[in-house]
């Protein structure tokens, strides 16, 4: 497990990359940093796809009785927009940044299970590509990202779209569970000496909490969706009332996962904000334990509020009252976080870098999303507002104004560490203001049209309802929002080439990742640091300013170094890292191919040949997985001194 | 080193938008939840109003604190001294943990009072059964003696209890100005009780995504004075007389008697799906079309009821309501224009007088 102790051969990136793009070192990588970047880049591509879907829908809704999109295509687009943004954008973006940053923050050389980490990224990509393949093979999923039964039964949704949805998300679900286990083991076992639990950076804390949420929430979804798959493929009737099944059961299974999922999307971003605000206020986080434990509290409470998505299904007033009360209670730890963030800036030296602006923007928009959430927690009010555009406004204030603005803060903050160059601050600030303004133009009016009675998920609406003007404004806002994303892409591309070169520590930060060169070498730390406080780098830089830290750290300064001699760097060749391997990619490729086969196993579109082809795909998949398992075992032997000694 | 960006636009923008929102919310639009004519929706509004003002208060305080903090403490110079390193304050933490809890407690108590009132099912309420189909609403009175669709007639001032069911997938029953939403679930029966406090015609929707034409699944609620409601019911229960009038559609003169024959013709398949009381049409798949001429809309709220719109519908149902069952049988042009005109004359002829209230 502890890679630092392993003696094994390594491929140094310096020798592998020259001339053309080093495909092999990326595709066969087990380096958490490279895997993180693959996550981030692919999540961003899915962000653009989800954004294009959103824009198409907004064009359709820009005017009443519009015929730009057909009803069926619109339904496919809103299903895929939500599925993409949740499962293929925000989640993997969080995972990607976590993958890159968490081992660096805790002073580790990699994740605990590097090959499992590689398996996660390729399974995620396999699942995402499978989902998008459905657009080309006769129709994307069209039953909503919540896939309510019995609309998703095969008689009401006869295309293969929902099967793609189930299996595509099944693959990304395995990736998430494997990733979560990897994070938990990494954080619990691989922290640098001296970094006790109560000295972990808050971003690490939130990743730990989210990993536990994932391993408790995802299995419910996986089981439910496999049952749905059996309903569709074999007529199992778990959720089909016409055959004695229970449609409401699906809602319980789905939302028992679906609501914790909301915190899976937001908590890591809250962790990022909790890192960025102190650095640019030049102060420690206010109330470290309260911020950390409010995250834990949200994680627990997140599991007892799921039925607030179901106030209207007739659970009865007592059940509704319980879920309403629990949902209101969750506002308390959330409020605690917001107050502590503001207090962190209070009396600080607040530096409005682009990353800081995005972090402040996050708080500002999240306040609005949190407040609109309170009205939705009240069942009588909810029954007027649910399934209207009011909810669309609320969820976008939380997930776009929250998660995505926070992710932009993280992007500007860690971009120099990942690439060695700073993003352009001037362009960044222009983009920030454009995005803030256009975000509000797009989503604020949705509160209004929702209150004025516009239902969600309608592909068109009649004129004269008073919704026309606001819908047009929202559509214009969407285009401005897209333009601000284009500015970001330009910023990234131009900064990669010509951006200001980043030092180890361009932001005067506090945590361990800033002790390393930008970007860090493949082995991360030449010498594993010894940590004696929550802000090891800050305390090393400002030994006199750290004096009043009463919350845990000992008086001894942390041993962090960020200047190494050439001689020492030469010695890095002796640090052995796990070798390149294609096994995880072949494994996930096999599962993806087999899943594709399973989708068509019971379809009689072309009669027998379809079924034979489907069985063929499954067989190929099994062979690929078998080859990968064998390769994996051999890789483990090769990389482990303990196993190879016995030969 | 770094140029500071101005930070006024955000609060200003939010303020402007909030004002615009409040102004816009003041208009009595067709489906707004802010002008209510039923006890259920009114109680929700009475709960929402104080919660809204509390939310505005919280917003102003917290957003104000955020903006004030950023402006007051933003770095004035690149080489500012390191600020005092404050790590926290347990007293303050406890205060701002408990303070929101009190606000939430107030909201929770008000919520539970409203919820108790809104979930109460008065035993004396008039019972109406509503069954949702893809994508239209069926309404039954008096244990199925009266069956209609798309227009829900109720008496003013009397509680009604809607027994909510679904024939295929999940739907959701929503009349913004009268009552909040309740799911219509296959295999499960839900109940919603409310009372209209004023006469009027009200917009209503299916609020749960229910497939291709979910966006086309609407209905109207017509709240009549009790005497007129009783009259409507009596009239509706009377079998429509055989009609032999005419009507203009598609520039042609339709003949009702011919239309009746077309409707009954097994080759045209109308009677396979629809019921018209007093005729041989006994199909149970589509909506009951008895007294069709009284409908306020065509195709479950998609088009206003006019003879021209009815002709358009009969000409090509799939183009008006994508995915609907009738469109799979009656393809575009399958009925000749003269046949359409005859059918329009027949269907439009079956009606009786109702003193319709104003749209509210």
CATH class of the largest domain in chain A: Mainly Alpha
User: How many domains comprise the coordinates of chain B?
Assistant: 3
Low-confidence stretches of chain A: 1-18, 550-554
**Helix amount of chain B:** 25-40%
Number of helices of chain B: 10
The quaternary state of the protein chains shown equals: heterodimer
Quick overview of this protein structure:
The complex is a heterodimer of chains A (647) and B (360). With 647 residues, chain A is an all-alpha fold.
Q: Describe it for me?
A:
The complex is a heterodimer of chains A (647) and B (360). Chain A starts with 12 loop residues before the first helix and ends with a helix. Chain A is mainly alpha-helical and 647 residues long. Chain A has helices spanning 13-16, 23-27, 32-61, 71-105, 114-133, 161-189, 202-234, 247-281, 288-301, 317-329, 331-345, 354-377, 379-385, 389-419, 425-451, 468-498, 536-541, 566-570, 583-599, 608-639, 641-644. Chain A folds into 2 domains: 3-8 and 32-546, Cytochrome C Oxidase, Chain A (Up-down Bundle), CATH 1.20.210.10; 582-647. Chain B folds into 3 domains: 9-70 and 90-119, Helix Hairpins (Orthogonal Bundle); 126-237, Immunoglobulin-like, CATH 2.60.40.420; 246-349, Cupredoxins -  blue copper proteins (Immunoglobulin-like, Sandwich). By secondary structure, chain B is an alpha+beta fold. The N and C termini of chain B lie far apart (61 Å). In chain B, helix 5 (256-264) packs across helix 10. Chain B contains 10 helices and 14 strands.
Write the SSE topology.
The complex is a heterodimer of chains A (647) and B (360).
Chain A: H1 13-16, H2 23-27, H3 32-61, H4 71-105, H5 114-133, H6 161-189, H7 202-234, H8 247-281, H9 288-301, H10 317-329, H11 331-345, H12 354-377, H13 379-385, H14 389-419, H15 425-451, H16 468-498, H17 536-541, H18 566-570, H19 583-599, H20 608-639, H21 641-644
Helix pairs in contact in A: 3-4, 3-5, 3-16, 4-6, 4-8, 4-14, 5-6, 5-19, 6-7, 6-19, 7-8, 7-9, 8-9, 8-11, 8-12, 8-14, 9-11, 11-12, 12-14, 12-15, 14-15, 15-16, 19-20
Chain B: H1 9-25, H2 39-73, H3 90-119, E1 126-133, E2 136-141, E3 146-149, E4 151-155, E5 159-166, E6 171-175, E7 179-184, E8 190-195, E9 200-206, E10 218-224, H4 226-237, E11 246-249, E12 252-255, H5 256-264, H6 270-273, E13 297-298, E14 303-304, H7 307-315, H8 317-320, H9 325-329, H10 337-349
Parallel strand pairs in B: 1-5, 4-10
Antiparallel strand pairs in B: 1-2, 2-3, 5-8, 6-7, 6-9, 9-10, 11-12, 13-14
Helix pairs in contact in B: 2-3, 5-10, 7-10
């Amino acid at each position: 497990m502890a890679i630092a102790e392993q003696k094994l051969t390594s491929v140094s990136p310096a020798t592998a990359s020259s001339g053309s793009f080093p495909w092999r070192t990326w595709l066969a990588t087990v380096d958490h940093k490279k895997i993180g970047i693959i996550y981030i880049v692919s999540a961003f591509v899915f962000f653009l796809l989800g954004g294009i879907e959103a824009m198409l829908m907004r064009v359709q809704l820009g005017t009443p009785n519009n015929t730009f999109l057909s009803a069926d295509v619109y339904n496919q687009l809103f299903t895929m927009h939500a599925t993409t943004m949740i499962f293929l954008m925000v989640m993997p973006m969080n995972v990607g940044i976590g993958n890159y940053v968490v081992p660096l923050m805790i002073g580790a050389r990699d994740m605990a299970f590097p090959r499992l980490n590689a398996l996660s990224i390729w399974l995620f990509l396999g699942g995402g590509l499978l989902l998008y393949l459905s657009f080309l093979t006769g129709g994307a999923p069209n039953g909503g990202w919540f896939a309510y039964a019995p609309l998703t039964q095969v008689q009401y949704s006869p295309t293969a779209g929902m099967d793609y949805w189930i299996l595509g998300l099944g693959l990304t679900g395995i990736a998430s569970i494997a990733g979560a286990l990897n994070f938990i083991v990494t954080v619990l076992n691989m922290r640098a000496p001296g970094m006790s639990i109560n000295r972990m950076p808050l971003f690490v804390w939130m990743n730990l909490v989210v990993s536990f949420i994932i391993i408790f929430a995802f299995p419910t979804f996986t089981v439910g969706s496999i049952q749905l798959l059996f309903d569709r493929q074999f007529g199992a009737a778990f959720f089909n009332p016409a055959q004695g099944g229970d449609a409401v059961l699906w809602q319980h299974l789905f939302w028992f996962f679906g609501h914790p999922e909301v915190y899976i999307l937001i908590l890591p971003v809250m962790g990022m904000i909790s890192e960025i605000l102190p650095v640019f206020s030049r102060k420690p986080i206010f109330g470290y334990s309260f911020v950390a434990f409010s995250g834990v509290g949200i994680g627990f409470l997140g599991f007892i509020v799921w039925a607030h998505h179901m106030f209207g299904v007739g659970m009865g007033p007592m059940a509704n009252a319980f879920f309403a009360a629990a949902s209101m209670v969750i506002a308390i730890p959330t409020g605690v976080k917001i107050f502590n963030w503001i207090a962190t800036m209070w009396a600080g030296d607040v530096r409005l870098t682009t990353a800081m602006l995005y972090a402040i923007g996050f708080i500002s928009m999240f306040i609005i999303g949190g407040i609109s959430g309170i009205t939705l927690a009240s069942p009588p009010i909810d029954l007027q507002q649910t399934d209207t555009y009011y909810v669309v406004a609320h969820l976008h204030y939380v997930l776009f104004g929250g998660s995505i603005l926070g992710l932009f803060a993280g992007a500007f903050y860690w971009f120099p560490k990942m690439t060695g160059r700073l993003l352009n601050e001037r362009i960044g600030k222009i983009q920030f203001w454009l995005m803030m303004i256009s975000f509000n133009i797009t989503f604020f009016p949705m509160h209004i049209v929702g209150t004025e009675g516009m239902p969600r998920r309608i592909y068109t609406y009649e004129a004269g309802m008073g919704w026309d003007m606001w819908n047009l404004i929202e559509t214009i806002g969407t285009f401005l929002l897209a333009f601000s994303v284009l500015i970001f892409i330009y910023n990234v591309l131009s900064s990669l080439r010509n951006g200001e070169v980043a030092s180890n520590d361009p932001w005067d930060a506090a945590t361990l990742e800033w002790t390393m060169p930008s970007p860090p070498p493949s082995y991360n730390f030449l010498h594993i640091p010894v940590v004696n406080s929550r802000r090891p780098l800050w305390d090393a830089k400002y030994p006199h300013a750290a004096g009043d830290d009463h919350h845990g750290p000992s008086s001894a300064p942390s041993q962090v170094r960020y200047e190494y001699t050439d001689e020492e760097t030469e010695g890095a060749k002796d640090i052995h890292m796990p070798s390149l391997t294609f096994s995880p990619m072949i494994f996930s490729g096999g599962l993806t191919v087999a899943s594709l086969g399973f989708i068509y196993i019971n379809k009689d579109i072309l009669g027998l040949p379809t079924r034979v082809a489907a069985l063929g795909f499954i067989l190929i998949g099994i062979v690929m997985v078998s080859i990968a398992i064998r390769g994996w075992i051999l890789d483990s032997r090769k990389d482990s001194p303990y196993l190879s000694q016995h030969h | 080193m770094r140029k500071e960006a101005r930070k006024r636009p955000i609060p200003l923008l939010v303020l402007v938008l909030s004002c615009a929102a409040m102004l816009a919310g003041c208009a009595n639009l067709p489906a707004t939840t802010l002008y209510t004519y039923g006890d259920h929706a009114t109680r929700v509004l009475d709960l929402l109003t104080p919660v809204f003002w509390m939310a505005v208060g919280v917003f102003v305080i917290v957003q104000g604190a955020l903006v004030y903090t950023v402006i007051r403490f933003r770095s004035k110079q690149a080489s500012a001294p390191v600020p005092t390193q404050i790590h926290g304050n347990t007293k303050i933490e406890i205060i701002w943990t408990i303070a929101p809890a009190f606000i939430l407690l107030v909201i929770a108590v008000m919520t539970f009072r409203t919820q108790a009132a809104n979930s109460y099912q008065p035993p004396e309420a008039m019972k109406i059964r509503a069954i949702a189909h893809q994508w239209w609403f069926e309404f039954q009175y008096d244990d199925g003696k009266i069956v209609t669709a798309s227009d829900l007639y109720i008496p003013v001032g009397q509680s009604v209890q809607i027994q909510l069911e679904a024939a295929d997938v999940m739907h959701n029953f929503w009349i913004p100005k009268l009552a909040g939403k309740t799911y219509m679930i296959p295999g499960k029966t839900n109940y919603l009780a409310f009372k209209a406090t004023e006469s009027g015609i009200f917009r209503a929707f299916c609020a749960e995504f229910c497939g291709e034409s979910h966006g086309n699944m609407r209905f109207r609620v017509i709240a009549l004075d009790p005497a007129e409601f009783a009259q409507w019911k009596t009239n509706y229960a009377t079998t429509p007389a055989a009609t032999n009038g005419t009507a203009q559609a598609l520039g042609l003169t339709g003949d009702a008697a011919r239309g009746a024959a077309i409707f009954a013709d097994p080759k045209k398949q109308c009677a396979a799906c629809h019921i018209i009381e007093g005729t041989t049409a006994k199909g149970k798949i589509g909506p009951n079309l008895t007294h069709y001429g009284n409908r306020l809309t065509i195709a479950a709220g998609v088009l206003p009821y006019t003879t021209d719109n009815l002709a358009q519908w009969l000409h090509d149902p799939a183009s008006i309501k994508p995915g609907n069952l009738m469109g799979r049988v009656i393809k575009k042009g399958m009925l000749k224009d003269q046949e359409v005109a005859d059918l329009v004359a027949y269907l439009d002829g079956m009606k009786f007088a109702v003193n319709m209230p104003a749209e509210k």
